[in-house]
Each structure stands twice: as C-alpha cells, then as structure tokens.
Amino acid sequence: MVSIREVAKRAGVSPATVSRVINGTANVDSIKKDKVLTVIHETGFKPNELARALFKKSSKIIGVIVPNIENAFFGELARAIEEEAYQNNYRILLCNSQNNTEKELLNIQTLNQLNADGIIIMTNSEDLASKIGPCQVPFVILDRKIEGLDEIAFIEADHYKGGRMATEHLLQCGCKNIVCMRGPQKFSSGQQRFLGYQDICKEYGLKEQWLDCDYDYEEGLRAAEELLSKFSDVDGILACNDMVAIAVYKVLLSKGFHVPEDIQLMGFDNIRFSKLFAPEFSTIIQPIREMGTLAAQVVVMHANGEPIQKENVFDVSLAERQTTRHTKEK
Amino acid sequence: MVSIREVAKRAGVSPATVSRVINGTANVDSIKKDKVLTVIHETGFKPNELARALFKKSSKIIGVIVPNIENAFFGELARAIEEEAYQNNYRILLCNSQNNTEKELLNIQTLNQLNADGIIIMTNSEDLASKIGPCQVPFVILDRKIEGLDEIAFIEADHYKGGRMATEHLLQCGCKNIVCMRGPQKFSSGQQRFLGYQDICKEYGLKEQWLDCDYDYEEGLRAAEELLSKFSDVDGILACNDMVAIAVYKVLLSKGFHVPEDIQLMGFDNIRFSKLFAPEFSTIIQPIREMGTLAAQVVVMHANGEPIQKENVFDVSLAERQTTRHTKEK
DNA sequence: AAACAGGTTGAAACCGATTTCATATGGAGG
DNA sequence: CCTCCATATGAAATCGGTTTCAACCTGTTT
Questions:
Q1: B199-231: pLDDT as tens digits
Q2: Cα-based distances in Å from B106 to A86, A108, B113, B178
Q3: Is it true that the peptide bond before B287 is cis, omega within 30 degrees of 0?
Q4: Which residues, 6 or more positions from B199, have their beta carbon under 8 angstroms from its beta carbon?
Q5: Which among A21, A231, B244, B308 could bridge B239 via Cys, Cβ 3.0 to 4.6 Å?
C-alpha cells in the first residue's frame, strides 16, 4: 500500500502538495499537478481513510442501530439509509441491538471512538438516554420517539393519523366489534396509534377493546390466542404492525376463521411482505423509504453545518387490500 | 474527548505507560497502574479507535457486501454475521450492492482504505475478480462461488444435494410433470441445484423441463407466467428460491390453481417467511445462521493468524410443509 | 531599484494512539 | 562494594494523512 509520502517522493514534490492535488484545497502548478496525478494513477494510490478521519475528526461513517435487521421494516429502512448515505459518500456501520440496551451502549461507544458522523437509532430502550456517557456523535431518532436523548432530529410517521385511518376503515367495512392489539405504550408509535383508535371509537360511539402486544411475530401468535379467548364476536382486528397481522392471520386460519369474511384485519407499516402475502394485507402505509432517506440526509446536512428541521412527521395513507372489504355502496 | 496524553499527564506518567495499562502489554507498577485506572475512570477516557487502527493496521471492522439487504435471505445472513462479529469485538460495515459491480468495487476500495480485517461478500458479479485492484483485505465468499477472487474461504450450502432432495420429494409426493425454475447458471448455486434436478430426472426417467429465473420476487412473477404458457399439465414446480416460490404461488392462485392439490411447489433457502406464509412452504433448509456465523469466525481466525479451512459446504435438509403432500403410505 | 501584492511551495506540527529503544532502578551474586 | 541482570519507564519515532506558516518566487507599481 503506497503512502502519500511515497507518491510525493516519486513526483518530486512534498506530501502537502499531493494532498492539495487530491483534495483540491489550493492551487497547484499545473505541471506538478499533472505529474502528481500521473504518479497516483501509476501507483494506484488511495488515501488511507483512517489517517484522514483521525485528523479531520470525521470518518464519513454513519452508525445505524436497529433492534433487528431480520425484521422487514428495519431491513427496508436500513436499505434506504444505506442508499442515501452511499450517494453522499458516507458508509453505514450496522448494529443489531436485539433490544439489548447494553449492546446499544457499546455500539454507541464504538461509533464515538470511530469519530462517526452520526448515529441513526431505532431503539426500544427507554432508559438509554440516562446511560449514555459523553458522546460527540449526533443522534437521529427514527420511527419512535424516546425521551432524554438530545437528538438533532427525530423522524417518524403520523402514527396517530394511521391509528385513526385504520380504525375508520374497519368501521366503513362494516365492523362493529373491533379489537386493537396495541403496541408498546412506552413508545410514541404504540401510544399514538392507540390514541387514534380510541378517538375514532369515541367519535363513533364504539366499544373500546384492546390488549397489549409487542411488535414481533411470536408476540403476535401469543396475543392472537389471548384475543380469541378474551373477546367473542370480534369482527375486526387492528394489529399493531404487519408482522403481527401475519401472525394473527395464521392463528385465525388455524381456528377456522375466514378473513375477511368472518373477521377483517388491518396491519400497519406496509412492509414489502404485506403485499406479497396471500391474501394481501390491508395496512397503513408508512413511507419507509422516504423516512430512511431523510434520516441519512439529516446526518449529512448536519455534518456540512447546514440547518435542519428537528421534528419530522411523515404522512401516512391507507392500502386497501384483501383482508378488509370496503362496501363500495357507502 | 480526553486523549491518552491528557490521562498520562493527570496520572503523572507517560502515554506509553497508559497504553500499557489499557492493553496489558507490559508490566506496570501496581501503584501507578491504580492511579492510571482511577484517572481513566474519572475522565471516562476511551481510546480513539481510528488512531489505534491506523497504527495497528486493523480496524476491527468486517465489511459485509450483500446484493440486497431487503431480501430476507441476506438479512438473515447479515444478522448472523453481525452477531458473531459482535461476540468477537468486531463491527460490521454493511454494503448493499444492488448487484451493481461498480458499487461493489467502490465498497471494496473503501474497506481497503479503512484497514478492514475482512470482507464477506455475497455477489452476483462474475467479473468482479478481474476488476479489483490491489487489495490487502482478505475475502470470504458466501453462498455462491465465483471464480478468480483469491478468497481465504468460501462457504456455501450443498446446492446439488438440495436440488436432488427437492426433486425427489416432489416425485415422492406423486408429481409426474415437474418443471424446474432454475436460478442463474453463472453461479454455483444455480448450477448445482439444477444439476441435482437433472440427475434425479435421469435416475427416475423423468422428462427434464426448465426455464430461467433470477432470484427475486418480480422475476418469479414473470417466470411463473412464462411457465404456465409454455408447459401444460405441470403438477410440480421447483422454484429457485423461496421468494420466487411466493411469487409463483401468487400467480397460481390468481389463475385459479390450487396448491398443493393441482400443483405442488418447493422453495429453497428456508427464509423465515417460508414458514410464516399461508400456506407454509415446503423448502430446502440452508443453515443460514451457521453459515453466517462461520463466515465471521473465519475472518476473526484469519486476523488471529489461525489456520482456516478453505472450502466449507454445509449440509441441507428438507422441510416438508403445506405446499407439497407426501403420500404417507409410500 | 526598492517595495509590495499574489500565488506556490515545503518543513514541520498535528491528529491520538502504539511500540521501540535506551535509560534508570533495585536486587542478587561474587 | 562492584558487577550483572531483570524490570519498569519515558522520549521519540511511527502510522498516513492534513494544515499552518513562513519562505520563496514573479511581476507590478512607484
């Protein structure tokens, strides 16, 4: 691996000049410049990013901390972040936290030690803020709001509106007896969606019925069983996300229920599989790609000293598919 | 951010001594050692990893290049790699190549410039080898074999056996007219699975019928249409992977076919969704987690100078689920 | 011819760690 | 008491870049 000093020697100039040529930070005599470029080409010289990052205090690395990369929702977000980062010449350091606060902290520390330019975090740890030590790296909080982290921006979808739309849609599809499988109430996502559900129930004079369910498939299986044993005559279910909706569907199927004939079902997120599944899931569309893209952009803009908007709430919309049946004659 | 010199000054020792304390590379007087540890604790000092990596020529970063992180198969592999790397105090730099050779090359270059300790690559670019410039970083090739890269190890499942097992299973389930949707023939995965199919056909005196299909959902939709228009009386389909199997299922459903009554269907990979889907997909189980784990282990072992086995082929097995129907009385 | 402006250039310091090497210290052995 | 050796320690070099700063041109103005 050839160094900048080696290039300088071969081109008969100083390392400073080579640096100026590769970075365009100052004028260089065009003859020398050509000579340097030739040598660079000949030797295949590439500046060592570590050395550069060490001096500049910026490694062009963005840390992305997700609870679980296997979860399609986070996979899709990660993909969008990666793509936008790549466009801006940043790289992604991916950390899978497994909802493990210790692991998150360790990863944050590593990113700090690496002079990362930003950390985009999707976390479930409500007490994370209190445990973080001194950290230079700016945070962007994605998908769920948590308290106490002094993030530079937070990005989420309009969960409240989503909760309202989903509930209202089930109503319009003829449901009289809707159960909400509400997500974790410690996060804004769970709270807001549930609030949306409650408000619609109040507005339409509907009975409010709910149970708690975490955001993953296994929890969905468990909660679906609980739901069936607890509530009778259910004709509409609001799952807290698409993975849970899939779990619910499978439980319903195994118990002999038909969807949407007997029970109608709404997901949330619009992960790719919600459309690939048979039947295709009616769900609330979060603009996953746009959210991921913005997260990466915010980090880049912050690094460039540009002003950024702190609160970013994305609009949601409804995908009416095969697990609900809109009575068109309404 | 406090530096090692600052710690040294406060503890009344030299930076060298502090370094020796944190790395345990030499004996240090226990009084001084305690003093240093106290100062480190007070100041919250964490050594800068960039500086360390620059000198050591090892950044404890493993590059992972996947064609598409949204694809569940790669998501699951990435997860396994991340976990094992984490256990060994390595971090993952994730690159999504979109099957774009340019992007892969750029990422390889970056990883090289970052003194990464290894690159685990799942690539579709057969001509990658010829385009890679000088690169210090050792490669591990995962899932598909490509020619010309001088990797330190390659890891894949026994695709040939998988192809045989899948075909034989369809036969035992009563299929007479099996079509193989074969994956890209430029990769060992596609070749070997197809070879397995062909060999079983020959052994049982079956007609060989196939068409080409890439490894993604959209391609699956296209190829399924082609299949139905090209072959009549099909009663068994060997999809090249699970995503394609899902696409095929949806096309069959829309055309009024019943699975497995009219047509039986086999996937490949055993991605998580193959079991979550309704119906659950019969498929060939690749030990995804084990493969990912080994990939990370190989990099770590190589970094430690330990000997490693170059060729690693993992055994596969069959998951008999709801898209095929084994006649038990056989 | 002296003074000055403007643009190039390289030596050296710097980023923050690690490691080499030479020196200082202390105890054992003659 | 002196030599010898082992151990502990810090100064300085190193990794490979970037940037500051002073020096050095070249040409223009007075």
A1: 999 999 999 999 999 999 999 999 999 999 999
A2: 10, 26, 10, 42
A3: no
A4: B163, B164
A5: B244
Express each pLDDT in B86-110 by its tens digit. Answer: 999 999 999 999 888 999 999 999 9
Q: How far apart, in Å, are the Cα atoms of A111 and each of A60, A64, B145, B202, B261?
A: 11, 10, 33, 56, 54
Nucleotide nearest to B23 (CA to C1'): C18
User: Chain B neighbours among A 143-182 (CB < 8 Å)?
Assistant: none
For B259, the token pair is: 């699975």
- The CA distance from A66 to A184, in Å, is 17
Which residue, A86, A35, A3, is CA-closest to B113?
Answer: A3
Q: List the single residue in A with minimal CA-CA distance to B72.
A: A70
Please identify which residue in the block is written with the tokens 């000054």. Answer: B9
Rg over CA atoms, chain B: 25
As ranges, strand D nucleotides with an atom below 7 A of a protein CB are 7-12, 14-20
Q: What is the pLDDT of residue A327?
A: 63
- Cα-Cα-Cα-Cα dihedral of A179, A180, A181, A183, to 10°? -170
Question: Cβ atoms within 10 A of the Cβ of A325, count?
Answer: 14
pTM score of the predicted model: 0.93
